[in-house]
Amino acid sequence: MVLNSPAAVALIAAVVSVAGTLLTIRATVRTNHNAAVQTQFQEIIKKRIEHYPRLWKIHIHYETNWTLSNQPKTREWAERYAQELNESNLDGGVFFSQPVYAKFFELRSYLCQAIEGTQPGAEVSDELTHKIRLSVYGGPGYGPGMSTHVKDDLGSYQSASLARVSKK
Known about the structure:
Blueprint (H helix, E strand, L loop, with lengths): L5 H63 L6 H18 L5 H20 L8 H12 E2 L3 E2 L1 H9 L14
Antiparallel strand pairs: 1-2
């Protein structure tokens, strides 16, 4: 076949046209997928904005304000704290980022240890109340606590981002 014949030119044009169409379709699909993912992320962020302040309020009440007012951290304190955290998890836990959920799980575990290991009316050990506080607020040599991850998710410390496992 002669490359400058009308049939060869038409065949090359057809192949280029098909390739261009396939690339356009691929780009459109990718753009639509990215737009759908962004819309989903925006909805998750909205839910976090709605839910995280309630979670924050629980920490302020049972950790910060409780400590500042020198109230004893008793077994009953741990029971109420755990109960409110669990109710919060039922309402919005599905929207927690993985780092927030990991700290939530850690905190709930420490609160359960406090409940199981403390007699009714007795104070939770200083060691365990310290672990509970670190789980919420973090500290030197410990790393960030749940409060830092919540703020990160809402964009206070960094651009708001969502934990997402990358596909390989």
